[in-house]
Design brief:
Belongs to the glutamate-gated ion channel (TC 1.A.10.1) family. The chain has 929 residues and is of the alpha/beta class. The protein is built from 29 helices and 28 strands. The longest helix is centred in the middle third of the chain and has 34 residues.
Length: 929
């Protein structure tokens, strides 16, 4: 009879009677729990295996499902029914909890009792021993059914060395949500299942994209079918615990095919138990003689039979095999009764090889082996898997931002479909992961940004809310240290210098003009200068023409050639007096010289005035800025300004406005209600300057922008520099390095540091603080600052402050010069054309050519010349040196004039040959020494 289950007929057990069942059969009663539903199938397969061995013993079985939640009377009625109808040679207990009333009953009838240990215990022990070498402290164990979940739960209740979470992977997909929402993320994962169930469980995990960081995962196969696993390539570098099928079959004394077809541990253990009981039965027929016991009959067994059963201990005669062993009392199931603590349990031993999935040779992938109850390391470099942290971050340029396609603006995704993050904080996270040896996942908040408290519920959102709820382990982003935030989270050492709020504006686009230098003086001044030049030129001409002491009218005083100031020459003198070259020879008359002196004084003063005003004009133009501080911005009304809506900057002005209102209300109450002791508070003016209320009003009227990108865009669009954006100073400095049109105005205010945030009481505080201090010592943060706030990578044109006066400002000077050059060239062309086209009229007194003498080549080749009337006229010799130098005045006695030098003959070795076409020695002019 196979798998017959007893009915629950009621029977009393106060009066007991026992009778013997004739024959050579084995009548077994199995105690199981309700969760062991697979026991029926394994028992049936084990009985078939016994039949195939032909051991000449028939086995009858009865299964009693012990209801732990019900009264013991119900379980006892079931047992009495089985004992009364079938009888029992032995009771084999597979249940997880000792049923004390039933155990007392079968002991009173001396029915042999065998207890079987939990089947999952050895696998959990092997798994725990291996993870000790990896310094594990928490683990998630995924099991294939409810029975394994119960056994693992009992193992943890007895004491498991790790913090463990059990999930039933065979109960649908509910465990996936729990696995996804698990916080904090565990260090290791273990899947305990047979080969077929392992494929089904891992397929669910892989589809849900929960399989990551393969070294953290361990696949513990509960049967030798590890080769049927279909996801070896996906699970590369994950650990595998595989049963050695050949060693199991060798221990069971079965063929290898037995361990490869339908094999499992429970079936193998049942097979070994049956064979051992058959050996006991066949060695002595009286030891396992089936016993019928009826609860309502009077006991009538003879004394000899009772004495045999009383002296029989099945464990003394139960043969153990290489596969089946007994648990020692120290590690067996502990009962409340001291007598029950010595009950041994049957268990099994298997050889398990531990390696990791890889395409390399098995000798390289072997990690350890479990043999004879001990773990033997095959690879001495078994190292813990990297820790894994969920790190919170939020978009804030240049701290953390998602990579986007420059053409479409779409967010770039990695192979897992997650955004790719970049920025200052992401580089720092990568360095922290290298220094602290961990892997990480960046988590952005689903609600909010950095963190705000709901005034009604008191709950936090954003980065702070994720830390409070445990969604993230720590946060590295542009998170400022606020006392309000420190009430719910902790901060470690700041990683960035003090930053705060600043103002950004567009550089004003100034109007350029090539004749800007002309605007230094007003039009009436330029016209006055031209009038002065004209009047001075006319006056010089008149004075030189009519003054009796001018060089023109007093030739006796000036016998040498002098400058004649015609009207044209007077204008040229007046014009050239404006140049550093000067006007040239001045008039000779005293009246003309007085006029010229006054005119020169006018020129000097006018040039100095123009030069000074031009320098000041150009300098002031370059230094001109609309506003230079927050106070100036608040006092004016031409320039509009705004902030990012609901940002830290916006909240700052809201808080400052509230502080101003509160202080004013307190001061007013104090001033109006001042007593005699506080009469000094009675002042007319409010002693605190109010400005934040006006600033907030102006911000609200300009409408706060949704994000920083809109704010910078609005500033860049205003070429007249009539719009300002108040924002985080670090982000403003970064934007300036990317846009040449922007400039920072004023000084930074409301300074606060950026720091890494952790959960309150987190064990990572000391480690993170130490690592950050090490990075500061190595100047790592300075390198990051130079990387992200580097203006040299932007080829901006030099400003006027840096490059000086631009060509646009003084280009008119060059144009005027080029105009003069062009006018001169045109005048030259006119002169040439006019001269060529003018009729040639010879004046009466012009010299006439009367003879042309042929040139003589032998005597005087060079002396051939034009003979004109000039030769016949008497040429007046030039005045002597004394006359030209002293003009009739007496020669001072201090000056000595030299004597006249007489010519001397040249003493040359040879004379010049006439054939050379040169004059002879006799014809040379006298040589004066």
């Amino acid at each position: 009879m196979h798998g017959r289950k007893a009915n629950s007929n009621a029977c009393g057990h106060e009066n007991r009677a026992v009778r013997k069942v004739e024959g050579h059969n084995l009548y077994m009663i199995f105690w199981i729990d309700r969760v062991q539903s697979d026991f029926y199938n394994d028992l049936s397969n084990a009985l078939k295996d016994i039949e195939d061995l032909h051991l000449e013993t028939e086995i009858s079985d009865s299964i009693l499902e012990i209801e732990q939640e019900h009264d013991d009377d119900q379980n006892m009625n079931k047992l009495c029914e089985i004992l009364g109808s079938e009888g029992a040679s032995v009771v084999i207990d597979f249940s997880y909890f000792a049923w004390q009333p039933g155990l007392d009953y079968i002991r009173s009838h001396h029915i042999p009792y065998l207890r079987v240990d939990r089947l999952l215990r050895p696998f959990l022990q092997i798994f725990a021993e291996f993870l000790k070498h990896k310094n594990a402290n928490d683990v998630v164990i995924i099991l294939q059914n409810e029975r394994d979940e119960m056994e693992a739960l009992l193992q943890i209740a007895e004491g498991y060395p790790f913090r463990t979470l059990l999930l039933n992977g065979g109960s649908g997909t509910d465990f996936l949500k729990r696995l996804r929402d698990l916080r904090p993320s565990p260090s290791y994962y273990g899947i305990f299942a047979g080969g077929t169930n392992m494929n089904a469980i891992f397929e669910k995990i892989n589809k849900a994209k929960l399989f990551a960081r393969a070294p953290e995962w361990h696949f513990v196969f509960l049967d030798p079918k590890d080769r049927v696993f279909k996801y070896k390539k996906v699970a590369e570098n994950a650990a595998k615990f595989g049963i050695n099928a050949r060693s199991v079959c060798k221990s069971l004394r079965m063929k290898d095919a037995y361990c490869l077809s339908g094999f499992n541990i429970q079936r193998a253990l049942l097979l070994d138990i049956f064979r051992s009981l058959i050996d006991v039965r066949q060695s002595n027929l009286d030891w396992l003689e089936p016993i019928l016991a009826e609860c309502n009959e009077t006991e009538h067994s003879d004394n000899n039979e009772l004495e045999i059963r009383r002296n029989f201990d099945i464990l003394d005669h139960f043969p153990l095999t290489n596969f089946m062993t007994l648990m020692t009392p120290d590690s067996s199931m502990q009962f409340e009764d001291e007598y029950d603590q010595i009950i041994p349990s049957l268990t099994f031993t298997v050889n398990i090889s531990i390696n990791f999935y890889s395409t390399a040779h098995e000798a390289v992938t072997d990690l350890a082996a479990w043999q004879n109850g001990e773990l033997r390391k095959l690879n001495q470099t078994i190292s813990p898997a990297k820790r894994f942290f969920r790190i919170g971050t939020a978009e804030a340029i240049p701290w953390s931002y998602q990579r986007r396609d420059p053409r479409t603006g779409k967010i770039s995704l990695d192979y897992l479909g997650k955004p790719i993050w970049e920025g200052f904080c992401n580089d720092m996270i990568a360095m922290l992961s290298e220094k602290m040896n961990f892997e990480y996942e960046l988590i952005s908040p689903t609600k909010g940004r950095f963190g705000e408290r709901d005034p009604e519920t008191g709950e936090w959102d954003g980065i702070v809310g994720d830390l409070v709820s445990g969604e993230t382990d720590f946060a590295v982003t542009a998170l400022k240290m606020y006392s309000e935030r420190e009430e719910v989270i902790d901060f470690v050492a700041p990683y960035f210098e003090q930053t705060g709020i600043s103002i950004v504006m567009r550089k004003p686009v100034r109007e350029t003009s090539l004749f800007k230098f002309m605007t230094v003086l007003r039009l009436e001044v330029w016209m006055s200068i031209i009038a002065a030049l004209i009047v001075t030129a006319v006056m010089i001409w008149l004075m030189d023409k009519y003054s009796p002491y001018s060089s023109r009218n007093n030739k006796q005083a000036y016998p040498y050639p002098c400058r004649e100031f015609t009207l044209r020459e007077s204008f040229w003198f007046a014009l050239t007096s404006f140049t550093p070259q000067g006007g040239g020879e001045a008039p000779k008359a005293i009246s003309g010289r007085i006029l010229v002196a006054a005119y020169w004084l006018f020129v000097v003063l006018m040039l100095a005035t123009f030069t000074a005003n031009l320098a000041a004009f150009l300098t002031v133009e370059r230094m001109q800025t609309p506003v230079q501080s927050l106070e100036q911005l608040a006092r004016q009304s031409r320039i509009n300004y705004t902030v990012v809506e609901e940002s830290d900057t916006h909240q700052y002005f809201i808080n400052m406005k509230f502080a101003e209102d509160t202080l004013y209300r307190m001061w007013k109450e104090l001033a109006l209600n001042a007593s005699r002791d506080f009469h000094k508070f009675r002042v007319w003016d409010y002693p605190i300057k109010e400005q934040y209320g006006h600033i907030l009003l102006a911000i609200n009227s300009s409408m706060p922008v949704k994000n920083a990108e809109d704010g910078f865009r609005k500033v860049n669009e205003r070429e007249s520099a009539d719009f300002a954006f108040i924002h985080d100073s670090a982000e403003i400095k970064y934007e300036i390095t990317r846009n040449c049109n922007l400039t920072e105005v004023g000084e930074v205010f409301a300074e606060q540091p950026y720091a890494v945030a952790i959960q309150q009481g987190s064990h990572l505080a000391d480690e993170l603080s130490y690592t950050l201090l090490e990075l500061q010592k190595d100047r790592y943060f300075e390198e990051l600052k130079d990387k992200y706030w580097n203006r040299s990578r932007l080829n901006c044109p030099l400003s006027e402050d840096q490059e000086g006066i631009t060509l646009e400002s003084l280009g008119g000077v060059f144009i005027a010069t080029l105009f003069g050059l062009g006018l001169a060239m045109i005048t030259l062309v006119v002169e040439v054309v006019y001269y060529k086209n003018k009729p040639f009229n010879v004046p009466e007194n012009a010299p006439q050519v009367i003879e042309v003498k042929a040139a003589e080549t032998s005597v005087k080749p060079i002396s051939a010349a034009w003979h004109t009337d000039i030769e016949r006229k008497k040429i007046t010799p030039p005045p002597s040196f004394e006359v030209a130098a002293f003009r009739g005045r007496e020669i001072p006695s201090s000056i000595t004039l030299g004597h006249e030098f007489k010519p001397r003959k040249r003493l040359l070795g040879s004379a010049i040959r006439p054939s050379d076409g040169l004059m002879t020695e006799d014809e040379l002019p006298p040589y004066v020494e």
